[in-house]
Write a structure and sequence with these properties.
22% of the residues lie in helices and 27% in strands. It is an alpha+beta fold. It has one domain: Alpha-Beta Complex (Peptide Deformylase). Bound molecules: nickel (II) ion. The site of nickel (II) ion has 5 residues, from helix 2.
Length: 188
């Protein structure tokens, strides 16, 4: 297993719409193992394949650290392959989110509380399932990644303007991340 560098905001791979994959996708079991290790090293609860440079529809979630806040999360560790959100419903709510591609930045983001989705697990078994609360929240965040959407896209124009300098610093590598990162726009 190896720890992969996480792409920082500014890398074009984070903006791609990720591709569906087949069970024969080369190196898939290894990639999933590496993503777990990379996520744990960075103390994240979710990691999407585009964040480690592969624009494919795959993300991993281990939300057990949040079990204190929501007991249903005590066993929520899962691999999602080829997910498709079919429906989102309910009154949008705010939650303070972070993202491993935006070190040291946390912002309140508004999302709907319930989703219905179709996905495959690491054995390519198919599921259709509903999720709500923090489970849905974390899935929605990771799902955004495979659609090329980033947390900054949820900010109001005002918030974006207020954070302009910090966002530029992230792109240019002027941040102290405690895990390996790749800064495409690093200033020399
Ligand atoms: Ni993220």
């Amino acid at each position: 297993m190896s720890i992969l560098p996480i792409l920082a905001y500014g890398d074009p791979v984070l903006r791609e719409k990720a591709r569906f994959i087949e069970p024969e996708h080369p190196g898939l079991p290894q990639l999933i193992e590496d993503m777990w290790e990379t996520m744990y090293k960075a103390q994240g609860v979710g990691l999407a394949a585009p964040q480690v440079g592969q624009a494919i529809r795959l993300f991993v979630i281990d939300a057990r650290p949040f079990a204190d806040e929501e007991p249903g999360l005590s066993e929520f560790k899962q691999v999602f392959i080829n997910p498709e959100i079919l429906e989102q419903s309910g009154q949008p709510w705010l939650f303070n989110e972070g993202c491993l591609s935006f070190p040291e930045l946390r912002e309140d983001i508004r999302r709907q509380p319930t989703i219905r989705m179709r996905y495959q697990d690491e054995h390519f078994e198919r599921f259709e399932e509903s999720f709500s609360g923090l489970k849905a929240r974390i899935i929605q965040h990771e799902y955004d990644h495979i659609e090329g959407i980033l947390m900054v896209d949820h900010f109001s124009p005002l918030k974006k303007r207020l954070l302009r300098k910090r966002l530029a610093n992230i792109m240019q590598g002027q941040v102290a991340a405690s895990y390996p990162m790749k800064f495409t726009s690093r200033k020399r």
